[in-house]
Design brief:
By secondary structure, this protein is mainly α. It has one domain (about 10-325). The protein contains ten helices and two strands, in the order H-H-H-H-H-H-H-E-H-E-H-H. The protein has helices spanning about 5-55, 60, 65-120, 125-155, 170, 175-205, 215-225, 250-255, 280-285, 285-330, and strands spanning about 240-245, 270-275. Strands 1-2 form a two-stranded antiparallel sheet. The chain is elongated. The relative contact order is 0.16.
């Protein structure tokens, strides 16, 4: 016996109710994880900077005056503090970004439906109204984009009391597909923050004469974007040993990718740079690793819920098609 659309809708609603509970649970675990991660990043960034200065480039560090050493250390502490704030802000902000994305998708669907209705009008009316409709759609797109940018740029959720956003997850993430998409964006944002912090730290090392001043920006980008799964340097996590081979000057002139002529040399360039790896940070801190395991457990439950939800969505589509067939069938 064919199942009715109403039956499947009820089952989907039950799954969405479970999803909202899971969304709040996952948000709270991510909040604990990010708080622990921020402290770990702070500590390990300072440790990596210490190892780079004392073991990687001890002569250059010793060449600095006492004041210069203190200024460098202060700059590293500021970068570490910035990392903590960026991580705390990103968690609630990621929900706002997801909410804005959903709103934009909903408005796009509404405009598509509106265009479809307009296409059903008479040919004479269509020629007169299409230009106005297109202009209206363009204005709506621009307004939506401006509103989204204003919303993201003006909020500073990292400074708001946690209770004001305690249940934001269940309001924004209403099904397992949305939860999964949000978690992926959140994880990618964390990796992006670690990459930015690594690059900023290396720039400070460059500014304070630890790393070469004429170092091309592209090499710092390589240090920041290298795989998080690369092996650490010896027993020093969060450091990356780069060896860049550069061709001769005549060869480089033929290459469209050549960037800084004064760095051109037949000898390979060897650099030790700070490169924060999420795997290193988690492995070295029991609190962070414990929260990561909790996240894995919830995501495992989410995976099963997502599969069931997608199955019910397909059942709803089939049930709707069956109902449409029956309603349009006419006996000869």
């Amino acid at each position: 016996m064919a199942r009715s659309v109403e039956q499947v809708e009820k089952e989907l609603a039950a799954l969405e109710k479970k999803s909202k509970t899971l969304a709040d649970e996952l948000y709270q675990v991510f909040l604990s994880y990010i708080k622990s991660l921020g402290k770990a990043v702070q500590n390990q960034l300072i440790l990596a900077s210490y190892q780079l200065c004392t073991q990687g480039y001890p002569e250059k560090f010793l060449a600095l005056s006492l004041k210069e050493k203190q200024v460098l250390q202060s700059a590293i502490r500021q970068v570490a503090n910035m990392a903590v704030q960026e991580l705390l802000i990103w968690l609630p902000l990621s929900l706002k970004v997801e909410q804005s994305s959903q709103n934009k998708s909903a408005k796009t669907s509404d405009m598509s439906a509106s265009r479809a209705r307009n296409n059903q009008t008479d040919d004479s009316d269509e020629s007169d109204d299409s230009d106005e409709s297109d202009e209206s759609d363009e204005e709506n797109d621009e307004n939506d984009e401006n509103d989204e940018n204003d919303e993201i740029n003006t909020i500073n959720l990292g400074m708001e009391p946690e209770e004001t956003i305690a249940h934001l997850a269940s309001r924004v993430l209403t099904n397992p597909i949305q939860i999964y998409r949000w978690s992926q964006k959140l994880e990618q944002g964390i990796l992006d923050i670690l990459q930015t912090v690594s690059r900023t730290t290396n720039s400070q090392m460059q500014k304070h004469k630890i790393l070469p001043k004429k170092l091309p920006d592209i090499l710092l980008d390589v240090a920041g974007k290298s795989s998080r799964y690369m092996e650490p340097v010896g027993n020093a996590p969060n450091l990356l040993n780069l060896t860049i081979e550069v061709g001769s000057e005549s060869e480089s002139q033929k290459s469209s990718n050549s960037e800084v002529p004064e760095m051109i040399s037949k000898e390979p360039i060897n650099l030790l740079t700070v490169h924060l790896r999420l795997s290193d940070i988690e492995f070295a801190d029991p609190a962070v690793m414990s929260r990561r395991n909790q996240i894995r457990q919830i995501l495992h439950r989410l995976s099963g819920l997502k599969q069931e939800y997608q199955k019910k969505q397909q059942e709803r589509t089939i049930a709707s098609a069956e109902a449409a067939w029956r309603s349009s069938w006419i006996e000869d």
